Request: fold
Amino acid sequence: MVYAKSWTLKKHFEGSPTHGNFELKTVELPPLNNGEVLLEALFLTVDPYMRVAAKRLKEGDTMMGQQVARVVESKNSAFPTGTMVVASSGWTTHSISDGKDLEKLPAEWPDTLPVSLALGTVGMTGLTAYFGLLDICGVKGGETVMVNAAAGAVGSAVGQIAKLKGCKVVGAAGSDEKVAYLKKLGYDVAFNYKTVESLEETLKKASPDGYDCYFDNVGGEFSNIVIPQMKKFGRIAICGAISVYNTTRPLPPGPPPENIIYQQLRMEGFIVTRWQGDVRQKALKDLLTWVLEVRKREIDRQTECEQGRGREKGRHRI
Reply:
């Protein structure tokens, strides 16, 4: 017998989520039918989009979300026992799948790389950054990109991809520690939006000529200040609006229409599931390649430092 522990939506959200919105339930799973597999979750996602998407759930449903899981029992030859997969099974320790919604980790995934990245940089959040920046914004080398929530899972990937493409990148985050992290990632300008005297002036100072691309994870008043500083024919990828997800008050008004009209801006909302098939697989390969390149550089730097310390100790011994 296999028992699954699942976090369910006990009560729909009003304002910020609380413990009272969830309930942990234990259920016994049935034996496998032919073509099915039993999955054991290793890592689960907890993402901002769930705050909005949970409106589609009925009270008592398991919370949605992806997981990296291991096949622990199989009656499906395509997924033998031990296979590592990404599944949309939600917040549950165990689940049964017919295999149709499962995605194997890339064959070239190295043993040294944490499989949790299949839910992050080499998964949904990385793909969101990739397609939002490259397809929706269509960035080109030499352009200036503005990213808010820049230290988050998506924002941090956006900045690094933009730098790979030769862009100047400006990022906003909500703490000094996050700002330091952005600078480590290579952001050209990073600031704490909670402590600057004027967001408008900070943005102008960071890029006096304005912004070609705005990758928006926050929405609300923040976006109303950024959008008037867009360059002509600027592109805005609306990925999220975390500043208003939990509000119980009326939403703030949108940006001035004249800015959008006379600057001839293009704004487009998107969901990453739009991209499937070959383009998705290419994006995953690109992301995995970039992650491995970064890890190699980090290992090379660490090796050089250790060798340098060894040479220094050798000189002292002499």
User: Anything to note?
Assistant: The chain has eight helices and 13 strands. Residues 130 and 161 are 7 Å apart (CA to CA). The chain has a mean pLDDT of 93. Residues 277-317 form the longest helix (41 residues).
